[in-house]
Amino acid sequence: MRKKLMSLLLIGTMTTLLFTGCGGGSSEKETSKSNTQTAGTYKAKDLNGRTIKIGIWWDEYWDSDYKTLEDVEADGGSFSNADIMQMKLDKVAEIEKKWNCKIDWVNLGWDGIKDSINTSVTAGTPDCDIYLTDLQFGISPVVNGYVQKISDYAPKESDILNDQNVLTRFELLGSDDYLFHESSAIPTGAMYMAYNAQVIDKLGLEAPEKLAEKGEWTWDKFEEYAKKCTQDTDGDGKVDMYGYGTVWTSTVQGFCASNNAEIASTSKEGLSDTKTVEALNFIDKLYNVDKVARPYEEDWDNNQLAFSSGKVAFTFAQPWLLIQESGNHDFDMRICPAPTGPSGDGKMTPSILTNNYMIPVGVEDATSVYEVFEELMNWYNGDTTYRDDPEYFESAFVDSDQVELATKLGNLANNDLWTSIDSAGAVNKVFYANIVNKESTVSQAVESYKQILQDELDSMKIK
């Protein structure tokens, strides 16, 4: 058989944490609804049997190779919902008949898709009509002029230029005219501050989300809570419960967003911005002055799982981590807004980074390719309840109030792409120079490394 089953982790991989983050990163735009037509109602064009190839790095089982659920299973495929899989297969058949074309999800593999982009796309002869990209390898073709503009091929009445119910444009360094991803009403990739409710209750402290409702959940209040949570719980003279802790990327993302700071959302580096410096100084205070943040270790999992193992009271986490660790603790994991910094307004959360599609330069009749793809991705025929199944997302939270809060906060995601852009590690160097190695102040570290990030951004100016 042509395809073999590969499991796809939509969220929860290291890539998602660092670069996907994701996904993500999408900016909600005000769009005109007056010209919007129902997705999937384009006038068909005879494509003369053309195969629309979509390059990805895992196996999908709803294309022209499969007609029935039995076909999928015979080729080693699986599905969690037979009705939904059948809807997808039916949509493929409908498109084949309407457009006289074939659909092929091409599993190029992780290394293979990067190689295909670096060779065929740069040569102007793309192997595929559409590529799904991780931001690790999706930014470069955009900034080097190898990706067609959405506004050049999408019809003015298309979903993507209007309501974005099916496909959503992704904003990259001020432009949302190149990359796009499947729309979703559920912020699965959002990042939240989470806390150990048992510790907070035992200390007689008010729930942080209640303080936030009153405008009292600030950095100062968080610092107060973190100090009270930092304890020697077994009486051996050593601190074994800290007020805060997690991986360094989440720490920087979380506290920067809480102060309305963005490190790489425009062509100008934001590492030296006063709001970013404020956030980094606050992180320094938690770790090195108050010593209420758990000392940072080189073991990524050790830092990330400190919360679920009961070693820290507060953390930043995404839903996948809360779900993964749900059986590894004996306390309620609750979420709350991040405490508001002196320059923050409580209206910004860390970016949601996504995998994004692109249509490369060299693809012929990109308009028809887009129209077919929009119809394909609208396999649910406008009923997004089939697409946006909330069960997984909701399982991360302890009650309906927490789900409502999570959805609200997820809609406040900023567009800071530094985790995808900063390949030279400027932010990492600042964190380690100051927080871990204690060899410089925040200001000194920022001054030393800000140009590294600016050089990265300068190399990524969209042509």
TrEMBL record:
Q: Where is the signal peptide?
A: 1-19
**Is Signal one of the keywords?**
yes
Q: Which Pfam families match?
A: SBP_bac_1
The superkingdom of the source organism is Bacteria
Record keywords: Signal
Q: Which organism is it from?
A: Eubacterium ventriosum
This one is known as Extracellular solute-binding protein
